[in-house]
Design brief:
Elements lengths: L8 H5 L3 H27 L2 H8 L3 H9 L7 H10 L13 H5 L4
Helix pairs in contact: 2-5
Length: about 100
């Protein structure tokens, strides 16, 4: 029995390397948002959190539960900015091993 090693958990889970890259980006934004949200919840009440992030209770619950698939990348980037952060999107050519979708 051989063990496969992947560059990220998303490479292991997703059959499509493009989807794996998208999920990796979403999860990085999601981690930042949830970390910032937890800090905010220490000083803000729920109503203030909802107002700051321009979300409803259902969306807040999804964030707290880690339901990444409930959010588009666009919404996650909006939440990053509303949380007081900025972001840079960097485009670069894929390395040959990244474009094959094969395990590392």
């Amino acid at each position: 029995m051989s063990t496969q090693t992947y560059a990220s958990v998303w490479d292991a889970i997703c059959d499509d390397p493009v989807k794996a890259k998208i999920m990796k980006g979403k999860s990085e934004a999601f981690r930042l948002i949830t970390s910032t949200l937890l800090e905010d919840r220490a000083t803000l009440n729920q109503e203030q959190v909802l107002e700051k992030y321009k979300i409803d209770v259902k969306q807040l619950e999804r964030l707290i539960r880690g339901q990444l698939s409930a959010f588009t990348m666009e919404k996650l980037l909006e939440l990053v900015v509303l949380g007081g952060h900025t972001y840079d999107i960097v485009y670069r050519p894929l390395a040959p091993e990244e474009s094959s979708g094969a395990p590392a």
